[in-house]
Amino acid sequence: MLFKMSSYPRIIDSLTDFSDDILLHIFSYLSGWDLINVMETCHRLSKVGKDHSLWKKADFSDGMLTASLISKKVFPCLHESTKSLHIRGYRKNLSSGAKRKSDLLTTHILKTFSLKCPNLEELHVLEAIVNAERLKLRNFGELKNITHFRISNCEFISLPSPVREGSYFSNMSCFFQNIENLEISFCNWITDYDLMVLSKLDTLKSLCLKCDLKIGYTIVYLSISFRFGFKNLESLDLRGTSLRDNDVSSIMLSGKLKSLSIGPIGCVRRFSDSIDDGLNLIIPDPFRKEEPPQQVVVINMGPNGPNWRHADEEELDTLGLHWVKKGLNRNREAALKEDEHYFFCKEGKLIRARQQNKTGEFSQTQNKNSNKRKETECYEHEKASKRLKSEEENISNEELSSDEEGEETGEKYSNDNFVESSINCKESTLPDSFLSDSMVHGFRDHSNNLEHLILAGCAITNNGLFDLLQYTLSLKYLDISDTYVTNEGLHEAQTLLPNCKFVLNKVQTPETR
Q: For bias kind Acidic residues, which ranges apply (predicted)?
């Protein structure tokens, strides 16, 4: 008697026993580094792992890279379908005593990115060391389709002096013509002057400058930024900066913000020093296109913020600013492009200038202190350049070997041993007394479109909250955690604005914000 043997399911012994479709589905859950490690095991997995569908979002942020590793590991994975790229450098490891690594980004790397993935829309650069002398902003312009650009926890060395050369981001609007989302966070080298330059990005819709402590340090630049720039900005995150009550009215000037986040992250950290309120500033009027080109904006800085006024050619003489006429009698577009402006004291005397007039017309109008400051900056810049050149010569050979020894698969990222470099700031506990009920008046006239507002960690009281709700009737979300608002105040606020979601947590960590 014959018996028919039943068929048993096939036993899978390894990944190679799966079909390509199943492997592609499995690989879609892997990070960039894990996928590269799998691809290096055999030829078949390497072939499947190079499928374009797996690299539309190339995320290498779970490991640390060098320029050499980018060439060896990242370049082969990129292609025309890649739209998002995340890379992380070695900056955090430097505080643990590790020897210095090479720059993460170079002109060659950015050029290769543009050739291999011409449709790249998002670039995220984390914890990188970038030499601003070797890598200019125009080099990023190779990536012409970038709409989302993120720089987080990065150190830019050899930055240009604002007095002599302007901001690193000067003319950014020429190179990033499609930029919509920009994040420069946890970077203590970003200043209000950089913010003023970034305000020329007319296509920008979302800006995050979280934990950039120097933002809010120079109220003049901050006021100019939001009065004349950021024409289409809808979302703004300035948490963890040195903002004060008076800055809020300047931030809200455009009237187009839909989302705003201010307040401390963790403990209150802000610069202890402040710019002298007695200094005034004068600039060409960006809104004025007709003649005479000498008409300028005079900003009188007072204890309650800037007071704006215009001054024509005759008024300049009355104000003791006759020296301005000669300087601004140039091509108007060039003056605005170069961010030309001048600080002067109450008597009308020039304190310092930011202009790129190569003829040196204003060199004689600078006072002795200004000249001394310039000489000091030039000396420090020259000294830093020599030190940098010496370091590069000493470590150039070490960098090549370090990229090859122990880093072939990328060192795993660790967040345990990083200590932030010391900065001139002071710390205090929540809430932040510099952001209090006094800032509420800043929402009075330009908050019609505001829907999402985070004030966690601000010194807002019940009365301040009630006044705020009168000006922000369109709010749909309000975070007032770690403030002076009580539960009773919250209940009354919910009655005043029933369609708004209120968040009131007394204990909140930075991760939950």
A: 393-408
